[in-house]
Fold:
Amino acid sequence: MTRPVPRQDLPRAQLFAERALATFERFTHIQAASGVVLLIAAAVALIWANSSLAPYYHALWHMPLSIGVGDFSFSQSLHFWINDALMTVFFLVVGMEVRREIHEGSLSNLRQAALPIAAAAGGVILPALLFLSLNMDSVRQHGWAVPTATDIAFAVGLLALLGRSIPANVRVFLLALAIIDDIVAVLIIALFYSGGLDYSGFAIAGLGLLMVIGLQRMGIGAAYAYIVPGAVLWVGLLKTGAHPTLAGVVLGLMTPVIPIRMRERPLDMLARIAGELTGRASSASRDVDHMNAHLRELRLAQRELLPPVVRMQSVLHPWVAFGIMPLFALANAGISLDGIDLSTDGAHWVTAGVVFALVIGKPVGIVGISWLLVRLGWCALPPGVSWGGIWLTGLLAGVGFTMSMFIAMLAFTDGNLLGAAKLGVLLGSVAAAALGMIWGTIYARGLRDADDNIQATPALSARSH
Structure:
């Protein structure tokens, strides 16, 4: 009987592939379904905002919502609480995914990550240049970053719909590229879309960071303990003028990737408690106080079996995918088509710039830089990935819904230009998705036909002999 090869003896390339595939599998089962929910939410918002019930749509998101303690009160619109508060949780999950990928995933090996990093750069630079080439006006230029982002939920969800015939490494490449794209989007928001900074807010934000570090040094792993420090960090960034959702990214990147140290290993604790509860230890363990103590230990051991970054991401990801992101889409995709005048202020160029950048700039930028680096010998295509797979990745990366909408609201204060940018995001994302699915179907059929020919060749050879 063949003995299994110890994991530490496996080739590094195989270990990397296993980790990368596991990362993609974690996303796929949620992303495929959440992409559909996100699409439904966007469609509902668009229909609602252009129906006879449109006044109720706008009144809902402008409804004030206040929190207060004693004489202190903080009042903002429901739209603010969704975009600036709830979306912080979205960015928290993004930050944790980036932290995890750097530690053990597709970004942990620089050589393996070089091609998706370069491709993501091409998918940011060319769309920005395309948009700027059509929008030289100083006001419209602010929207240069709108078409640079990729929506992970939509892109990965669409790829999942193409089925298992798509090579696994194409899926891994798209996931790595989309994560890098998110990192770039966060940096863009921090560097280019934060107003004049009030440096007094950094003292508050610094206090929040010190509280987080202190709790981590004390070995406190309960997520609830970090709500107050996270809120302090959020308030500090809000006061500085930077976008407060960046607090989520900071906390995500600070989330530990290894379990906290305990006096007793979680598995040893579980074994000991199991022995005591099944009567192999003293009968005193059966009284109520001991039972309650054992239950507390069980909960602690169960919690610490997984690193905090894995545990928290798995808990929050469904809430973000099926709650926060659809709610964001419902609150922001409701573009009143009657309220957009594309003939004034060059609004039509904003729409055209976003559409062309997403549909043309994204795939050409991604494929172009990839081809150049492979041709120069600086990078190599992932095993099993052809140029058809790279084109598929580039087309699907043009779906920029959530992040693009978010950046558009930071880029434009003029309602008409904002509406034009949102319209461009919707049209461009739909067109990119359609082109991606068409090409993906052709690509998958070609792969299946090639596999059938390979399987048929031995049979024909056997009959000829």
